[in-house]
Amino acid sequence: MKFTKMHGLGNNYILFDQVGYPENILQEQDYPELSRKISDVNFGIGSDGIILICSSEKADFKMRIFNEDGSEAKNCGNGLRCVAKFLYDNQHVTSPHFTIETLGGIVSVVVEVDNNKDVEYVTVDMGEPKLLKGMIPMEGDPFTLTVNESYTFGEEMYKLTCLSMGNPHAIMFVDNVHDVALEEIGPKIEYSSVFPERVNVGIVHVKNRKEIDYRVWERGSGITMACGTGACASVVAATINNLLDQNQAILVHLPGGNLSIRWDEQGHVWMRGEASYICHGELEHVFN
Ligand SMILES: N[C@@H](CCC[C@H](N)C(=O)O)C(=O)O
Q1: Do residues 61 and 19 touch, judged by C-beta distance below 8 A?
Q2: Catalytic annotation on 76?
């Protein structure tokens, strides 16, 4: 099996190009195991998960993403930019504007080609955030929002703003994202019974009305260098807490680099950022 390893701001995935092939080249149950094995840094390649690029009946292409622990997620912002760059560079498309189906819905992407014909930036229309508890999903009245609401996990109380960008995010606002022990808080909240499908946990510091800092504990992968859907969720969360203004491009600083995120007046969230190659290769003896 040929693979390409790519990253968006250090959030790295092993991509398998299955375009034109049946979606299940492997048995369906083998993908979680493949992701766990490949993601292992000692016995595999080392990654935050795997991505399958498939043909689609509803959009130009389809993306599936499995986390490091083998769980399948419905969306992945950094993965979408990598997939868009890969598809364009490998001439699966001629137009830089196309659509990708995810389990969370269909998104449109635009790749930006520079003078050397090298794609550096990709913009994705990530669609509308889902704000109701029932859509995230999380416990409580399914028709209400979670805006700076207090929850106790273990001994500690946390104020969470929660929403889904296709995948669930719990966001809390802090004075300094580097002072927080995310490796302790992250798993406590991820596995809490408040979130029946688990959750990605983000900490955000609003620097001013145009810039935020953001760190993430990802469901199924732990601490990563960046999370695209999480950056979108952070901007939406800060906006509904009146800390940012809608329709303003916000610079989101993540440990792996920056993303520009805008929640427009029609309710769509736009993400612009880089996508990069790490290496290409071929897998042997995956299931030994
Ligand atoms: N890193 C991704 C999100 C990957 C999935 C996430 N861990 C989940 O399980 O929801 C991104 O860039 O959005």
Answers
A1: yes
A2: yes
